[in-house]
Fold this sequence. Notes:
Distance between the termini: 30 Å
Order of helices and strands: EEEEEEE
Shape: elongated
Strand content: 25-35%
Radius of gyration: 13 Å
Amino acid sequence: TCQSGYSGIGCEVTCKGGAAKPCSGHGTCLPGAFNGQCACFEGSTLGFWGGEDCSRCLDTFANATYKGSRC
Length: 71
């Protein structure tokens, strides 16, 4: 198991968004990902985020149902 912000077999890969704030704080760094890949949050509680480092608020979030909630 890698420390937060790192992935890969030997935990040598820095997660997208940086080790200090992996996935820009809007997702989870996938364990074992060789490229620091993120799984971005997609829900009304944590917001709908996208992009390689989960830093982009998705258009889905701006619709009337979720407007003004989290991003």
